[in-house]
Write a structure and sequence with these properties.
binds zinc ion; 4 helices; Arc Repressor Mutant, subunit A; 124 residues; 2 domains; Dna Ligase, domain 1; alpha+beta; 5 strands; single chain
Length: 124
């Protein structure tokens, strides 16, 4: 892993679970530590770290950009349709649900992204 990749991983990990950083935010935090790090470098590092399953890339309907968070226990996300805030939702599919779907539909499920959409507490 290159120095820049490690820096990007640290930036995402330091913010911790429950924070969902855009690529711009990751770039801004990385630049505080390494002022010359370019956007393209951050972009490539995030793609690589995602492929290595060290971080998760979250894409939510209605959100223009992807969010990044440290890889961790699987959870769902809630996105407020008014202010666009994103938060974690402690929800997991019932045990065996994925296997049932895979068997019934003859598919191979590698990844699950669950998201809920509505109005957050502050906007209500
Ligand atoms: Zn809101
Ligand atoms: Zn999350």
């Amino acid at each position: 892993m290159t120095k820049n990749h490690r820096l990007v991983l640290e930036v995402v990990r330091e913010r911790g679970c429950g924070t969902h950083l855009s690529m711009n935010e990751v770039h801004a935090f990385a630049r505080e530590r390494q002022p010359r790090i370019g956007f393209t470098t951050v972009y490539r590092a995030l793609a690589r770290l995602r492929d290595e399953k060290l971080i998760s890339e979250i894409r939510l309907p209605g959100a223009e950009a992807a969010y990044f968070e440290p890889a961790g226990p699987s959870h769902a996300h809630f996105r407020c349709s008014s202010c666009g805030s994103v938060s974690d939702v402690a929800y997991a599919l019932p045990p065996g649900a994925t296997d049932d779907i895979a068997r019934r539909d003859g598919v191979d499920i590698r990844d699950i992204h669950l998201s809920f959409h509505g109005t957050c507490r502050d906007c209500r």
